[in-house]
Amino acid sequence: MKYKEIEIEEVNCECTDLRICRGVLTAVTEGIALHEAKYLSGFGLITAAPIQTCIEGILSESETPDGRRGVIIQFNVPSAVSYEKFHEALLKRLFLIPHLPTCSLFDVSSKKEDSFIDIGESIRKWGDGFEVSENYKGRDIYRIPIMTGDMLVEKTLNFYQGLDGALEIFAQNAVSCVVAAQEATCRIFNEVSGVANFNYPVGGVSGAKVGGINYTKERVTINDPFCPTLKNTIKNSKLPVGANAVIEYPIVGLDENSIKKALKIAIDTFATTPGIIKITSPSFGGQWGTHKIYLPKIIQ
Amino acid sequence: MKYKEIEIEEVNCECTDLRICRGVLTAVTEGIALHEAKYLSGFGLITAAPIQTCIEGILSESETPDGRRGVIIQFNVPSAVSYEKFHEALLKRLFLIPHLPTCSLFDVSSKKEDSFIDIGESIRKWGDGFEVSENYKGRDIYRIPIMTGDMLVEKTLNFYQGLDGALEIFAQNAVSCVVAAQEATCRIFNEVSGVANFNYPVGGVSGAKVGGINYTKERVTINDPFCPTLKNTIKNSKLPVGANAVIEYPIVGLDENSIKKALKIAIDTFATTPGIIKITSPSFGGQWGTHKIYLPKIIQ
Amino acid sequence: MKYKEIEIEEVNCECTDLRICRGVLTAVTEGIALHEAKYLSGFGLITAAPIQTCIEGILSESETPDGRRGVIIQFNVPSAVSYEKFHEALLKRLFLIPHLPTCSLFDVSSKKEDSFIDIGESIRKWGDGFEVSENYKGRDIYRIPIMTGDMLVEKTLNFYQGLDGALEIFAQNAVSCVVAAQEATCRIFNEVSGVANFNYPVGGVSGAKVGGINYTKERVTINDPFCPTLKNTIKNSKLPVGANAVIEYPIVGLDENSIKKALKIAIDTFATTPGIIKITSPSFGGQWGTHKIYLPKIIQ
Amino acid sequence: MKYKEIEIEEVNCECTDLRICRGVLTAVTEGIALHEAKYLSGFGLITAAPIQTCIEGILSESETPDGRRGVIIQFNVPSAVSYEKFHEALLKRLFLIPHLPTCSLFDVSSKKEDSFIDIGESIRKWGDGFEVSENYKGRDIYRIPIMTGDMLVEKTLNFYQGLDGALEIFAQNAVSCVVAAQEATCRIFNEVSGVANFNYPVGGVSGAKVGGINYTKERVTINDPFCPTLKNTIKNSKLPVGANAVIEYPIVGLDENSIKKALKIAIDTFATTPGIIKITSPSFGGQWGTHKIYLPKIIQ
Prior knowledge:
Four copies of one chain form a homotetramer.
Chain A: E1 2-3, E2 6-8, E3 12-15, E4 17-26, H1 30-41, E5 52-59, E6 70-78, H2 83-94, E7 104-107, E8 116-118, H3 120-123, E9 132-136, E10 139-146, E11 149-154, E12 156-171, H4 174-191, E13 195-197, E14 208-210, E15 220-222, E16 245-253, H5 256-272, E17 276-280, E18 291-294, H6 295-299
Helix pairs in contact in A: 4-5
């Protein structure tokens, strides 16, 4: 269907179920919080890393326990990954935190959900006995002395059943791909609560497919129908006329409504950024999750 | 000794021997190359991650095989980590690369050293048989179709015996710590070839000590003599009068001369940034490496 | 009085009355909008320029007429400057706009106030007869062809009687000054509508005094009681013990409540940034405006 | 002629003679120096402002008198503007400087050319008698107390006869325009000494033509042959097939060789950025300067 300047394929966005743990990293300034959140969240795609690390947005100084601005991070894996493996990978990733200058880590919300994950027991060992357990502004935390001052780490983080969603974006060229992805990410970062992006601040990646056609033993390989330099080589190329570049735009979020809201904003960004031609959603045969979001319904 | 506005402790900087592999990540713009280099290089300290990932600087468009600006990354581990474990961790980290939009990965230098590491064989499997082996501008590469176009990955990266060095910086407050560290990093990034920083662009971290005093089973714990909130609690606090914050400033590099050059620049930055009081170097009992650099000699 | 970590002088913030005109500059991305807003808003202090140009914040894509994110700018002068001189200076400053790639300029609000300033008649002449007058999404605009596409310029901008306010911040060192100012600016930019900052994104400046003690013919000179290198030289130095740097933190806004809200946020930022010692407000003998805001009342 | 991925029109780049004054603005960090250089250099095109303000690059800490990194700015006007008017406009622009926190202003080179402009006499009046004349690291300066510490202002800046040059870039869409311009600017900023860009960091603008076809009394109007939304309306449109956006890429520099070097780098950037179609140079009838640079010769 035609939508603004582009074409939208009338397909479902198939959402994978996710295990999500969500924290906010505060620091002496928002700038430092962003640098450190990105340092903590690098290398965060499940194809290569044991855990995914996505950046959701800012909590203002009036919303965090310590009155400093912070960056919300969603640590997540597909639900196909066991809870034990997720917890293990989460603790390993968070073991970096005592290195981050001026930082503290809290849960995003002050109210505990039914499910929460213990992270404090692992991180507090850094304290070598100098760490102190306390209740700080209503939060159960460890106060750990580090070089820049005290680092506060909340003992538990809420644990959610969330989901992901992804778009495939066809464009005239790769510049329009990355610029549109970065602008969509800027909008979601600022306007949508509960949804997070990969590869922040770009937000878009070159996507993969499960398994291999020729290399059948590989876990993941390139998604060849979406590769522009193969469009004249393979029979099942999905590149429309005039498209010379593609980018995958994946998001994660706490619930379907937030994902829909973010997809609407993303689609509107792509639909109005010069050089974008068409949007679709990658198909996984509908096996990976319980939610399907019909793209045309998002923009109605 | 007094140096400009500060005190420098007359001690050795004890350098750990490192295994280093060095690559340059190019992209459609320097801005995208920096974003993706940071995404690839996040979570990169050996205390928490299986490999360290440090950012060295920019290669200009006249210095890269594909004529685009790129970011040089030093993937490294202490030499105490076996070559096999390093190679395994390197390949796992680089497995992310086919996701990075518009990127390519090359060796920094066109001339192969005696030692080099094969990275192409692992990454090329992403290509699912569509990848092509070729000689590109004198480099042996794989051309792998991805969504934004072709990704070029050099088959091997030069492998070096390098070293690290670190300073401990005492300051009036944590703001001076992070600002001075970030400025030292900016200078090294731009002015010194062969030396790379952790936690780019901040460059400073809260450091750790090996083992634990109380938690004797821990691999790493806080470096308590350098923690300001313990200065009135412990007997061996190293905080000088007037210092309320500390930051550790670690660098890695290919050779001792480059490390010395970078330490000189770092010391000069700290010595002239308002709020910095004193510089020393952490002591590891001289066990971890073959190089010692006497701090006073650096500034002569 | 003591407030959190600092001292606040129990004085009035004396607010100057201002003439304010407010527009939003949209562009193909928020990043470009910010670059161009800063380019348009440089050189924007009344001591040196004929008009002040302050950056207020972002309007989201759902709040602008063209569905792109934009930066709100407050063009302003003290009310002591005549309306004619303000209008002349405004038109001269806005004459730059047809150069700004991908940009458009709209009023912030869709509802016209009683007072508005015509800007379209001057800018449209750039169009050389190719410009078109139209009603666009309820706005009266000129559509002017430029190199990157059509630039839309709303014919009038609402005109307000606003006010300014300023704080003087004493700190241990200049690094704390600029970092705290930049963080306060980040918070106001994101959290307060109707208030704008000078010298964005730093937000702080070295302030001036009216006239001169020795150079009596000068319009403006340094504010010597607030200059740290004069603290042992002059009798009326305002520097408290331990302070080695000062920064002036001026803001402008549409009404007193917004200014109060922004001053509260600024004071809280300064009160919790390491290295800040004391806050006061510069005194102008109460002559320049009708509003006085008592600092202690802001933080109650 | 075909060049890499694009078409280059075989025309001259006609260079206007310029009066240039060049200074370096240092600050406590490179980041602050860049913010303040941009604040000083905003609103800097001769069509709208009385002086042009272009950003050239960074001087490292080993190249500036005060050992801090600084940003080089070229203040310039076409030579058609009298020396007196240039000097007057320069002093007015520099009158902002005592407001810039932690900044100092020096000449770029320590060696005085035959021609130099006095700037100190005007700025020093800010000092109200507290300023001090001294020789600092071989430079004749005024030391002016400001709020963040002492501001050093060199008394004179070298004065050059320079020139400008400009390209017109045709692209598939406006996103490729701004991205390519920003990348060209990044390269010139880092790789070419003596050449500076407008509207930093974007570097490209929508250009103007002298006078008007219909509005004959206007000084400047849109350059209609280069406006994409007029391509089907006017007879003399220069837009090639497939081009939907244009950007003008103007640079200024101290001498022809530097301009040629920068144009080469710019052309190479545009020739390899996705979405760029063709490059030409705007024609002014050859009246405005003594230098013509033949585009094909630049890339040989």
